[in-house]
Amino acid sequence: MRVLLIEDDNAIAEPLADGLTRYGFDVNRVRTGTAALAAAPVDMVLLDLGLPDIDGVDVCRQLRERSSAPIIMITARGEETDRVLGLELGADDYLSKPFGIRELIARIRAVARRSGAAAGRPSMESGAVARDAGSEQTLGHLRIDRRTRQVRIRGELVGFAPKEFDLLSLLAEDSGAVYSRQRLLDAVWSPNFFGPTKTLDVHIAALRRKLGDPSWIETLRGVGFRLSLRGDGSEDTT
Fold first, then answer.
1. Closest by CA position to 137, among listed 148, 122, 123, 128
2. Do 118 and 193 share a domain, yes or no?
C-alpha cells in the first residue's frame, strides 16, 4: 500500500516512516501542504494538521475535492472542533499525538477495510467503492449510484463527501428501517472508532442540508435514524 505521510517535524516523521516501511508500506513523505497537493497518487494519506505553509484542515479539504484516498489526520490539537471540522471535510479517522506505531497500523488497516483501499489500487486516481450492494437505487427523486458513488436529486448531481455518501447509501439499503447510532458508526467508521461523539450528528446534518429537506432523515430520539421519503413526497421505486 502506498502511503503519503505529510509531516514537517523530522523527529516524528523519520521514525514513523521507518516503522511504516517495516510493516511493508511504501511511504512517500512530504513536509508541506503544497508538496502534498502536488504528490503522486497514493492509497492512503496521513495528514498532520500543523503544517508550516497551509493549515492541515485546508489541505484535507483540497485533497478530498480531488481524491477519494482515505485520509487519517494526525494532530496535536486537542480541540474537538478541529477534529469534527476535519471529519466533516472528508477525513476518515484521526489520531492524537503521541501515539504508537501499532495503533497507527491498526487504524490504517481499519480505514483500508472500510474504504476498499488496497496495494496496487491508487485511490487518489480511481476512487474506492466502499459498498457493493445494489449498484443503482432510486427513492422518489433521489437516485444513488454506488458504482460511481454519485447522487442525483431531481436529476441534478449533488456532491457528497465519502462518509456522507456511505451513510446515505447505508440508510437507503433499507429505507424506512431504523438504524441505531452504534450500527451506523460501526458500519461507516469502525467498531473501534474513538472519534468525537458529535461526528455522526455532523454528518447527518450535512446529509440533510445537501438533500435539501431535513425530513429526508428522521431522528428517533434515543433509538437512531432512518431515511424517509417525506422530504420527497414520492413512492419508493427501487
1. 148
2. no
Are 98 and 172 found together in one domain?
no
Condensed to tens digits (0 to 9), the pLDDT of residues 28-87 reads: 999 999 999 999 989 999 999 889 999 888 999 899 888 888 999 888 765 666 667 777
Length of the chain measured in residues: 238
Q: What is the mean pLDDT of residues 12-26?
A: 89
Banded pLDDT at 122 (limits 50, 70, 90): very low
Nearest to 197 by CA among 180, 185, 215, 212: 185
CA-wise closest residue to 48 among 21, 9, 11: 9
Contacts of 3 (CB under 8 A, 6+ apart): 20, 25, 26, 27, 28, 42, 43, 44, 45, 46, 108
Q: Pick from 205, 225, 216: which is nearest to 141 by CA?
A: 216
Residue 117 and residue 70 in contact, taking contact as beta carbons nearer than 8 Å: yes
The CATH code of the domain that includes 97 is 3.40.50.2300
Residue 38 sits in which domain range? 2-126
Same domain, 7 and 119: yes
Asked whether residue 122 falls in the same domain as residue 8, the answer is: yes
pTM score above 0.90: no
Residue 238 inside a domain? The answer is: no
Q: What is the pLDDT of residues 184-220, one digit of tens each?
A: 887 787 665 656 667 888 899 999 999 998 889 999 9
